[in-house]
Amino acid sequence: MYKVLIVDDESIIRNGLYNMIPWSDLGVSGVLTASCAKEALKIAQNTELDIMLTDICMPEMDGLEMTKIMLEIIPDLKVIVLTGYDDFKYAQKSCSLGVKDFILKPVDEGSLIKCIKLQIDHIQSELQTEVENNIMSRKRMLENQREFEKSLMKLTEKSLDQPDVIEVPQCIKFADDCEYQVAVLTPEISENSIWNQHRNLLIMSIKSFFIDLVDAQNSGWTFQNSDGDIVVIFYVDKKSENAEEQISKLQEIIDVEFDVEMRMGIGPVVQNMSRIKNSYEIARKKFGVKKPPHDTDNNKHVDDYLNKKDKLLILKEKILASFHDTEAAKEYLKKYINEVKTSGVSKSVAEQKFYDLASAFYWEYLKTTGNSADGRLETLISTLQTNDLENCCVFTEMFIVKLMYTNKKQMHEIIEAATVFINKRLTEDLTVFTLAEQFHVARNYFSRLFKKEMGEGCNEYITRKRIEKAKHLLTVSRLKTYEVAEQVGYNDTNYFSLAFKKNTGMSPTEFRDRQNNPE
Questions:
Q1: Residue 387 — very low, low, confident or very high, per pLDDT cuts 50/70/90?
Q2: For the packed helices 347-369 and 326-342, what is the interaxial angle rounded to 10 degrees?
Q3: What is the three-class DSSP state of 69?
Q4: Where is the HTH araC/xylS-type domain positioned along the sequence (predicted)?
């Protein structure tokens, strides 16, 4: 469905165009109008437009000047100029700007409908070409990845004194002038986990996450060894985080998205490519040792923790850890404030404790939302210094609660926009990482935020929407399985089939047969 903007300073013409065209028959879902260039440009800043119909002669800014700015905002916008001036210079300038058609007033209804339909056909053709190009690009990447994985398996699992013998595809190179560190990982699947019957899908999904985090960022290479475990070769230099830090960040997202823990072994940093095998072998040995089971005596764990930490520090950590859970954070906040009030500390010490908590929470707020710092902390300091202890408690609580609810509103807006973005771009390369970048928030924050707002992980939501679309295509079309996979954003047919079976209990072929033969 497409959106059209009509720009004309004469209301009779705007309304006439709005009412005379059978927009819905043309596949147009929304028609907006503007009486001047300024109003039109404001609409373009906040709305995804496909086609614009505009007059040339308008007050303040003419239609051609507006078109030039508009095409900078929306490069793919199809512009149709409507004018009462049969002037070659206007037509010539329109063409130089990239205007798609130049129609003289009074406008013939049939000709205008034909012109709009032609532009819609162009949009559909461009979208199809883009999809095909993306599919071809993903296919080439997959082929390169498979070829490279074979080389990496040889490098890590076979005894070769000269790694240059390994045939590495020319299009994929190891980074120069850096060290290497190898990690071996596999998910720990409990007996009652939903992944028990879908281990291969889980492995492929987690491997895909590492490819997005490591390979796509030119930080190393991910592959599977002969046992099916995930292996990551990290580049190590002054600019990059070490393997432990990168895996730790991804582990939090994996916990949210798949509800599994990872068993892992990490080898030492080695100096050159020829020593990668040594790092791999040590990682394999560490990988073989499972983590000790969790302490089931929760009270003992809490007692030990209390012995090591100051009570206020514990409450502060709990408040920060509950940053995305407003009600829990508020409960811990009340306990923190009460602890300060009843501890018998001096007024100046109480101020310091309140400021310590507020600044830590404010920093977390800035870090996760991407907002710029303002002067509110300085205002809080002044407030604490000029009020008694009772009011200091009140103002500290107000400061933090306001941040909580501001964040909560932003959370909802971000996820609402993310779901719209996902639903429009199911054929594209959608991941937690690309979406977090799109909406300018930290990856771990986005992952936790999405699950809290939607009740399911971001990856789970994307998969569910893709499978819904795949079910529709399998029912109404004759596309082959690999073609359906491509249409819903999977460049690996095997990966698609595993995901489809997990969500429907049937393979794509079985599902299609069931739809065609319901009995």
A1: confident
A2: 160
A3: helix
A4: 416-514
Residue 484 pLDDT:
93
Q: How many CB atoms lie within 10 A of CB 269?
A: 16
Find the angle CA(362)-CA(365)-CA(366) to the nearest 5 degrees.
90
Query: 179-287: same fold as 2-125?
Result: no
Residue-level pLDDT at 343: 82
Burial 138-159, CB ≥16 within 10 A → b, else e: beebeeebeebbebbbebbbee
In angstroms, rounded to a whole number, what is the distance separating the alpha carbons of residues 433 and 437?
Answer: 6
3-class SS of residue 475: helix
User: Crossing angle, helix 443-454 and helix 389-424, to 10 degrees?
Assistant: 80
Instruction: Please tell me the distance from the alpha carbon of residue 91 to that of residue 114, in angstroms, as a whole number.
Output: 19
**For residue 31, what is the enclosing H or E element?**
strand 28-34
pLDDT over 80 (residue 298): no
Q: In terms of Cα–Cα distance, which of 433, 451, 452 is closest to 442?
A: 433
In three-state form (DSSP H/G/I as H, E/B as E, the rest C), the secondary structure along 85-118 is CCCHHHHHHHHHHCCCEEEECCCCHHHHHHHHHH
User: What tens digit of pLDDT does each residue of 135-185 get?
Assistant: 565 555 556 666 767 777 777 776 545 544 445 445 445 555 678 889 999
How far apart CA 245 and CA 298 sit, in angstroms, is 28
Break the chain into its structural domains and give their ranges.
Answer: 2-125, 179-287, 309-400, 412-516
DSSP β-ladder status, 101-104 and 78-83: parallel
Read off the pTM.
Answer: 0.53
In the three-class reduction of DSSP (H, G, I as helix; E, B as strand; rest coil), residue 188 is classed as strand
Residue type, 243: A
- 46 CA to centre of own chain: 20
Class of the CATH domain delimited by 412-516: mainly alpha
Q: Is residue 185 within 8 Å of 244, Cβ to Cβ?
A: no
Residue 511's pLDDT band (boundaries 50, 70, 90)?
very high
CATH classification of 179-287 is 3.30.70.270, yes or no? yes
- Correct CATH for 2-125 of 3.50.50.60, 3.90.1150.10, 2.60.40.1940, 3.40.50.2300: 3.40.50.2300
Percentage of the chain modeled with pLDDT above 70 = 81
Is the pLDDT assigned to residue 32 strictly greater than 60? yes
Q: How far is CA 53 from the centre of its chain?
A: 34
- Among 27-41, 110-124, 133-147, the minimum mean pLDDT is found in 133-147
| Pair of tokens at residue 503 | 């969500």
Separation of alpha carbons 470 and 480, rounded Å: 11
Count of helix runs (H) and strand runs (E) in the chain:
20, 9
